[in-house]
Amino acid sequence: MISPPIQNLPSAIFLMGPTASGKTDLAVALKNYLPVDLISVDSSQVYRGMDIGSAKPDRNLLEKVSHRLIDIRDPSEAYSAANFAQDARNEMKDITKQGRIPLLVGGTMLYFRALLDGLADNPPSDPSVRKKIESDAKKYGWPYLHAQLREVDPESAINLHPNHSQRIQRALEIFKITGKPPSVIRKKQQEQGSLISPISNDYKIIQIALMPLNKIQLHQRIEERFQSMLDIGFEAEVKLLYERGDLSSDLPALRAVGYKQMWGYLSGRIDYNQAHQLSVIATRQLVKRQLTWLKKWPDLHEIQVNYESERKIFFEKMLIDCLDILRRSSIFIDKRC
């Protein structure tokens, strides 16, 4: 099937950036200028009861400005990049049907990439296979399993960090279920045309990223934000999840930055100060991975942000730069929105 010319495709905006960069505030502000509906691109915000630690918009904001794909799963349930790609496609289609523009905002780069590149039609999860992989991870560590993946599928392994547990687990699971490396499955489906198609076949995508000029400034914002989370009840939030009794630290939801460390404190493995320190360190590591993704990202419009300025000054500059990018991308700006 021949795709229509890109100028005839409906528009969609991707707003990316590292944790604590100001993406949500900017996305909300854009509603004053564009007929946009927001879709969250965040692997933690999909889960109910994980509000503070995921920096989920508060209830007052969500009532005024709805964010799709928030609170759609229980923490006991798995949610994959493939799930997101399908859910996001459905939400984008619904928004476009209403004559509005999908605005996807978040920092889970794997989700953006899955939507952009398309996905192989892989087998559903097998609980027994997954349990065995998780057991091996507990015993030997994820770098050991990454080495196993490298032996059977070097092409998949080279793109994964040795501690990227969720993706290593899924790749090994696919191999154990099918007996074929995931990269081989993907290539074959690509040749046969059975790969879930990239979203760029259906939309004109404008990709924008907030890029900090100074990492030290961003690190300071990370520390301040995590302290704010603690001040408004992050420990109590995780305690409610811990006391449910049906959740464990092996679940994808509870491997999230901050939740993993606070769970370790509640289970007695580390003390409170360690949980605090390790959470900040893990967030910095997450930011480093996000920036690594973005530095290699094709067709990206970057907005350089100087967090040293007063908040009002740097935010106004972010907004002006973003609107300028959208105008140059032939997006009509109407302040009456």
Which descriptors would you attach to this protein?
337 residues, alpha/beta, Rossmann fold, Histone, subunit A, 2 domains, 6-stranded parallel beta sheet, 14 helices
Outline of this structure?
With 337 residues, the protein is α/β, with parallel strands linked by helices.
In the residues, how many domains can be counted?
2
Task: Tell me the series of helices and strands, N- to C-terminal.
Answer: EHEHEHEHHHHHHEHHHHEH
Q: Please count the beta strands (DSSP E, at least 2 residues each).
A: 6
> Which blocks of ≥5 consecutive residues have pLDDT under 50?
none
For the termini, the CA-CA separation is: 36 Å
Strand order of the largest sheet: 3-2-4-1-5-6
Overall radius of gyration: 20 Å
- Oligomeric state of the chains in view: single chain
CATH fourth-tier homologous superfamily of the largest domain: P-loop containing nucleotide triphosphate hydrolases
Briefly, what CATH class of the largest domain? Alpha Beta
Overall 3D form: globular
Helix content: 40-55%
Summed over residues and divided by their number, the pLDDT gives a mean of: 91
Please explain how this structure is put together.
The protein has 14 helices and 6 strands. It is globular, with a radius of gyration of 20 Å. It folds into 2 domains: 243 residues, P-loop containing nucleotide triphosphate hydrolases (Rossmann fold, 3-Layer(aba) Sandwich), CATH 3.40.50; 66 residues, Histone, subunit A (Orthogonal Bundle), CATH 1.10.20. Helix 2 links the parallel strand 2 and strand 3. Strands 3-2-4-1-5-6 form a 6-stranded parallel beta sheet, with helices on both faces. Helix 3 crosses helix 4 and helix 5 crosses helix 8. The model has no long low-confidence stretch (mean pLDDT 91). It is of the alpha/beta class.
